[in-house]
Amino acid sequence: MPLRYWLIILALAFAWGSTFFFNEILLRELGPVWVAAGRVSLGALGCWVWLALRGQIGWVGWPMVGHLFVFGLLQYAVPLAVYPIGQQYITSSAAGIINAMTPIMVVTVSHFWPGGERATVLKSIGVGLGFAGIVLLTLPSLHGAAASSPGGLLFTILAPFCYGLAMSYLRNLDSLDRVALTAWSLALGALVLLPLALMAEGVPHIQRAQTWAALLFVGFILTAGAFLLLFWLVPRVGGTSASSIPLIAPVSALLLGVLVLKETVLPIQYLGFAVIFCGLLFIDGRLVRGLRKDQPSG
To answer: Which of 127, 134, 178, 250 has its CA 20 to 30 A from that of 266?
Structure first.
């Protein structure tokens, strides 16, 4: 695969890992539901502008709108609200590590989903390692030795669980173009989040330029732009190579949290992240299969 494609994969991974850093910036002046509502709304706007420029806006039919509404809740509205709510009680680096549980939740949900893909032995090992890593991540909090609360950590796991549900539900939307799917589901998610934010947190008052900058960046670049770039990339590199992104994204979340926000990560939490990362490698499978091929035959 050409180097430029790997650079795009790295850029996407770093970008999505940085969203937890930007959440911390936004939470200084906005409530958590407004953080989610702003991101989802601006992301939807960016995708609709792209569709309009390409002349691809069209009606999808009411039955499909119903499916898109469910998908929008699971993929965008709920998880993108869970993270900023959770980050009031946990660090951004911890949120980034929990987000790494997404492929593990996808495998778990798919295994029990009617007609879903059953987990292989390798993927089952990966799921077990993932949950073991979460236990290690949570242990210091249970003893009051970490900045993140155990309740906040467990609540935030709801986000990757929603992603797992969304990926299994996605089969109902296979006939729809991925950009149109994202635009519709983000817009429908925004229709839920905007009134909810008004009722729960009132009208927002943004006074800092950095808040506006973070909100615009998260909405237009890290949501609309990143997904549009991903949809352009996947046909060129394949889904397998693109699946490397979740393996890399937590690294940027950790780096920004520790180096910029001065968050403290304990050694056992680094161990927890390492165990989750090993779980992701088992779920990904390429490294394990490569090692098997390298074994000399008897």
So the answer is: 127
